[in-house]
Write a structure and sequence with these properties.
This protein is 0% helix and 54% strand. It has no helices and 30 strands. Strand 12 (121-126) and strand 13 form a beta hairpin.
Length: 314
């Protein structure tokens, strides 16, 4: 895992800045909502704030006794949430001189976190089979979403913040009420571990990625699986929706990304690129999608499936 960060121009694929400062692998990155600040968490137990345009580090926060595993901004950009393998979460108030609030209570390392769209709740993913819900302004009044019988691998809020979805190695998708922490629906159908989950922007459809080799679309208004996307020859490890809700992208360990028509469930494009995919994401205008692997980043034209730029990592 590299200890440097590359800043790239998406239009040209050119490297703008290489950010140096961490002394061990960088585990997580997040931009502030206004795009003016980049934060990075590292195995060196520090969190840094960077200016994306200048490449200069403005703050270096120390305090975690364990590796920092996740970073996320609140929707207003005023608070930075930091997760760690030391079983704690820290809140960094960026408007109060960098004051810290320590949240404890997890018995296992916190390996991921997410915030509701309104910033009022956080969900912390832990390795002891549960997701913990917290009221973001105080870090108190938490509910434990404890229903999976195996490792929780991913969580996602619906766009209105009224539904929390979680997926697990126990082959299921759970839907939770964030205000109560109660599970009100369990979606079954996957035959192996489920590794990723994403909501359609309108909140009425959910996508899940799984072994062996499939992605599924779930109708949240009626409950059943709408489509099972088959075609990949190895595990599907990431999914993402185009913002207009017409296309789903799925990235697989078979070194391909497939674009699916949500109305028919049929594959419209198959793109073959670098190996060991880790993530896929659409641009805001939907004209491009980006794929990430341990070897680099590729930028693709959504309409024709052509890759105009390949960015090789360090």
């Amino acid at each position: 895992m590299p200890d440097t960060i590359g800043m790239w121009d998406p239009a040209t694929g050119d490297l703008r800045h290489t950010l140096h400062g961490h002394s061990d692998g960088v585990t997580s990155l997040a931009f502030s909502p206004d795009g003016r600040v980049l934060t990075s968490g590292s195995q060196d137990r520090t969190v840094r704030l960077w200016g994306p345009m200048t490449g200069i580090c403005s703050h270096n926060m120390k305090g975690h006794p364990g590796c920092v595993t996740g970073v996320a901004f609140s929707p207003d950009g005023k608070v930075l949430v930091l997760a760690s393998r030391d079983c704690t979460v820290r809140l960094w108030d960026l408007t109060a001189g960098g004051s810290l609030t320590l949240l404890q209570g997890n018995s296992h390392s916190v390996n991921a976190l997410s915030s509701s769209p309104d910033g009022q709740q956080r969900v912390l993913m832990s390795r002891n089979y549960f997701a913990q819900l917290e009221y973001a302004p105080t870090g108190l009044g938490s509910n434990t979403a404890n229903g999976h019988s195996d490792l929780v691998t991913a969580v996602a809020f619906s766009s209105d913040g009224k539904i929390l979805a979680s997926v697990s190695h126990n082959k299921t998708v759970h839907l939770w009420d964030p205000t109560t922490g109660l599970c009100y629906h369990i979606m079954k159908g996957h035959t192996d571990l489920v590794g990723e989950v994403a909501f359609l922007p309108d909140g009425e459809v959910l996508a899940s990625a799984s072994n062996p080799n499939t992605a599924r679309l779930w109708d949240l208004t009626t409950g059943p699986c709408r489509h099972t996307m088959k075609g990949h020859t190895k595990s599907v490890i990431a999914v993402a929706f185009l913002l207009d809700g017409e296309i789903l992208a799925s990235a697989s360990n078979d070194n391909t990304v497939r674009l699916w028509d949500l109305k028919t469930g049929l594959c419209s494009h198959t793109t073959k690129g670098h190996s060991e995919w880790e993530a896929v994401e659409f641009s805001l205008d939907g004209n491009f999608f980006v794929t990430l692997s341990g070897y680099g980043v590729q930028i693709w034209d959504t309409m024709i499936g052509f890759c105009p730029h390949t960015i090789t990592l360090f």
